Amino acid sequence: MSFSLKACSLLSIFCCAFLYARTNFTNDYIVLNTSGVTTPETYIAALDDANWEQFRLLDQKRQFKFENGFTFELKSAREILTLGYPVDLNKYSNHIPVNYQPPVLKLLAGNKIGMETHPVTIK
User: Fold this and answer.
1) CA–CA separation, 11 vs 85, rounded Å?
2) Tens digit of pLDDT for each residue in 59-69?
3) CA–CA dist 69, 36 (Å, integer)
4) Which residue, 101, 117, 105, is CA-closest to 47?
5) Are residues 29 and 74 in contact, defined by beta-carbon separation less than 8 angstroms?
6) Chain segment 48-92, per-residue pLDDT in tens
7) How many Å from the N-terminal Cα to the C-terminal Cα in the chain?
8) Which strand ranges, in their side-by-side order, compose the sheet holding 104-108?
9) What residues form DSSP beta bridges with 72?
């Protein structure tokens, strides 16, 4: 009997950790421009499937643009917290390197997002 109690406790801890580690939030961006896009739903589906946490800033929104002009704004970590998601604000920064160029996004097959990035030279 104690084994199943331990197993249930471990399973509960694992489930809580999994839910806390969730980084694919809904309603975490705002679409700004869909002109020139015939099916914005496919872009929205791809955005919903993607994990944007490595790009999210603590207190600032951040804009991203696809090569065809579809543009969206990623909400800040504080805004995500306000939406009720459990986020650790200590994991986010407001620092963007001086020479940073945002990636150029491209919608790929299967509602995946490709990203052309530019390396930043630190002097």
Assistant:
1) 22
2) 999 999 999 99
3) 7
4) 105
5) yes
6) 999 999 999 999 999 999 999 999 999 999 999 999 999 999 999
7) 62
8) 29-33, 71-74, 62-66, 104-108, 112-116
9) 31, 64
11: amino acid identity, one letter:
L
pTM for this predicted structure = 0.75
Around Cβ 23, how many Cβ atoms within 10 Å? Answer: 14
Q: State the DSSP string of the chain.
A: -HHHHHHHHHHHHHHHHHHHT----SS-EEEEE-TT-S-HHHHHHHHHHS--GGG--SS--EEEEETTS-EEEEPPHHHHHHTT----GGG------TT--PPEEEEETTTEEEEE--PPPP-
